[in-house]
Every structure is written in C-alpha cells, then in structure tokens.
Amino acid sequence: MGEQHGVERTVERTLGHLRALDSEPEPAPDRPLTLEDLYRQHRMRLVRLAILLVDEPATAEDVVQEAFTGLYRNWGKLRDARAAVGYLRTAVVNGSRSVLRRRKTAREYQPPHQADARSAESLAMLSAEHQAVVAALGELPRRQREVLVLRYYGDLSEAEISEATGVSRGTVKSTASRALDALQKILGVG
After folding, report:
1. Quick one: how far is CA 77 from the chain centroid?
2. Could you tell me the sign of the dihedral formed by the alpha carbons of 36, 44, 159, 167, in that order?
3. What is the set of domains in the chain, with CATH numbers?
4. 17-58 tens-digit pLDDT
5. Phi, psi (5° rounding) for residue 32?
6. Cβ distance 154 to 89 under 8 Å?
7. pLDDT score of 77 more than 70
C-alpha cells in the first residue's frame, strides 16, 4: 500500500504541476458570465485536458470546439456558470471517448496510441520524472487514464469525476486504485 501512495504522490505532483502551469485567472464578478467569457477562461485548460485524454493537439482542439458548440446550443437550459463548466468538462470527456472509440475501430486492434503529442513548451517544462509519468499515463486503459487525469490534473473530487465520466463513485475509487497499481508497475516503482 505504501508503494501505491508513492506512485499516487508522483502522479499528483506531475499533473498538479501541469495544472499550475495551466491556471487561468478568475473573472471579475461585475457582470453575468457569457459564453465568450467561458471560452476565454476555460478553453485552453479544456484543450489540455483533452490532450491528456486523446494525445493529439488537433483532435483535442476539435473535441473542445464541439463541447462549446454543444454548450451554445443548450445555453438557455443551463442553471448557472458552474453548470456550464461541468457541462463542458463532461462534453470533453465524452468527446474524447468518442474519438478513442473511432480510432480503435479504424485501427482494428493495433496497439494503443502512445502519449507523445504534448506541446513543446509544456514538455520542456517537465522534469524527466514528470515526462515518464505522462508517458506512463498514455499506457493505461482509457477509464483509468480519465480518472487519474480528472483527479490530479482536473483537481476534481470523486463525485465530480463520477458526474463527468458517468460511473459510480465506487467505480471511480476502485479505478483510481487499479490505475495507480498499473502505473507502479509501468514505472517500475517498488
């Protein structure tokens, strides 16, 4: 169990480092939030989230653009700005899943895509240890990668991850544990 905590701390440091690099200032609450505000404030972070899930910047951009298009179509049905951010996050996760499903079908049982499509700037800012963790995340099954990325990069709670992925909180918890075990083996820790 102690070895898993070591891997968890390593993943948390790596994705927390990326999250800190991606932090965007919060808007001044002097007027109601608009779709344009949401786009300006959250687009890049959502693109980076999608890159961690699909490994291709161009595809990640498309996924996020589709999420914002869906938000635009449903703008009148939202409760508030917090609901809009949750909608976007869920749409990015679901859009990334769709991309991966289509890839799998198109490749017909070829090995999984390797995680190597990070931006030059973000990769250069990572230590060798962080780069190894990001590469290892790319080797995990889709759901395990989603749960760890949403937890440690998205800084979401189990309940928020459950909502974004459409699985129960118990499944989130057990998936995270299995993912950390798998990372421990991939990274050769312990």
Report:
1. 25
2. positive
3. 2-187 (1.20.140.160)
4. 777 766 655 555 566 778 888 899 899 999 999 998 988 899
5. -60, 145
6. yes
7. yes
